[in-house]
Design a protein that fits this description.
By secondary structure, the protein is mainly α. It contains four helices and no strands. It starts with 5 loop residues before the first helix and ends in a 5-residue tail after the last helix.
C-alpha cells in the first residue's frame, strides 16, 4: 500500500479550489490551505488506522464527511463566498484526489 502524500494531496486540492474561487483566492488562500492540509492529513490517518484495523469503512466515511462539512463551513464563513461557490470549490478539490485517496485507503471514502 502506497502511503498518502499529504503535501501532494493538499496541493492538488488547492490548485482545483483556486480554479473555482479565482478572484476570491487572495482572501481565502490561507483558510483553503489550512483546510486542505487537515483533510489530506485525515485521509493519511485513515489509511494508517485501516492498516492497524482501528477503523471501519463506515467510520472512515463518516470522518470524511465530517471534514467535508467542516471545509464547507469555513469557506462559507468568509465574506463573499456563497454556499454554492464553497461547494463547487470543495467538489473540485475532492474530484482531483478522489481516485488517489480511495485507492490508497482501499475503501471508497470520498
Amino acid at each position: 500500500m502506497t502511503p498518502i502524500n499529504v503535501n501532494d494531496v493538499a496541493h492538488q486540492m488547492l490548485v482545483a479550489a483556486q480554479g473555482v474561487l479565482k478572484d476570491k483566492w487572495p482572501e481565502v488562500q490561507n483558510f483553503a490551505t489550512s483546510e486542505a492540509k487537515k483533510f489530506a492529513q485525515s485521509m493519511a490517518d485513515i489509511q494508517v488506522w485501516k492498516g492497524l484495523h482501528q477503523i471501519t469503512e463506515e467510520q472512515a466515511q463518516s470522518l470524511t464527511r465530517l471534514h467535508q462539512r467542516s471545509m464547507k463551513m469555513v469557506f462559507t464563513s468568509l465574506e463573499g463566498i456563497s454556499l454554492a461557490m464553497a461547494e463547487k470549490a470543495i467538489n473540485a478539490a475532492l474530484d482531483v484526489v478522489r481516485a488517489v485517496v480511495n485507492k490508497a485507503i482501499g475503501w471508497k471514502v470520498i
